[in-house]
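Format notes (please read before filing issues)

Several people have asked whether sequences and structure tokens are stored in separate files. They are not. Every record keeps both together, in the order shown below: the sequence lines, then the token lines. Line labels are part of the format and must not be stripped during preprocessing.
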Amino acid sequence: MSAIQEIFAKYGPDYLEKFGNDMPKNHKQVVNAIISCRTESCGIAVYECPDCGTTHYFNRSCGNRHCPVCQHQKALKWMERQLERVLPGHHFMVTFTVPEEIRSFIRSHQKDAYGAMFKASSDTLKKFSLDEKYIGGDQPGFFGVLHTWGRTMQYHPHIHYVVPGGAISSKDGLWHPSRIDFYLPTPALPKVYKAKFRDIMMNKGLFDQIPSEAWDKGWNVNIQAVGNSENTIKYLSRYVFQVAISDYRIVKCEEGKVTFTYKKSGSSRMRRMTLEVMEFIRRFLQHVLPVGFMKVRYYGFLNPNSNLKLEEVRGLIELCHEFEIQTPMTTVEPIKPLVCPNCGGKLEYCYSALPFQMNLIRDTG
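Then the structure lines:
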């Protein structure tokens, strides 16, 4: 059992009893899913060892995307898919944030506000990539990942984009590269991003609910040159399927308090923070996403539905650089198969049984 699951198993029922009447339904579902994950409440998966013939029974995972127990394999598979799609040439990570004054509104209108953040930020990137001063291409490609937490699990929504350094122009059909050390003008992007977000809120009839102070503050956009995108993808893969905090950061949970580690921005020194367990669970749950909301989105030629094939884009980038660069060879640690604890043979999956089916399995031997 993971450290986070142990915390929810021990204190989750008390949290539900104390705050359940005021909690969103999907938050309750997440608490119950984490508690029941890999217990008989989720059913069993049956495997057989072809070498020694032994049948093995494993408790199934809950499958909830906010459960820390379930997400490791999904993160590895996502990273493997992205590394297979890596393009040659230089890349950037572009991060769009919002001021503190608007965060409470966003948390109360998550589906609309998160969607607006994606729309406003992606349209801003597309707008500036058109400018001949910077890139001059009308067909960029990038993907974005929504994060909602800061280092101490506080609510801090922001979007990270991984962006190849350039775009294709439909006028000449060529790849137009950016500079290696400069993608787009950082001071100009926040103004357009804020204006586009404001327009979306007006169209949705939500503008009057946003504190006026939010529009007086700066909306930060950070652009970082990352060279090859492989390391950035590996970095983001740790967070795509993670929620708020990882197990390795939990130091202890005792006497109703949770202690975990964190680093301040700009510092490499590890610090510790201790929270009352109810506050720890509250902070964790505030990062639960609306049902069905897609936290990873793909744009332009990186969208799976794009008419441009990635092989074509790779060819155009290599042609632009006179074939002096190549798509890097990437390596992914293979997912370890389940093995038989008796003989070490590779287990073969047979079938799964839900909780109501388990008694039938027991009755039939």
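For reference, the curators noted about this record: The mean pLDDT is 89. The chain is about 35% helix and 20% strand.
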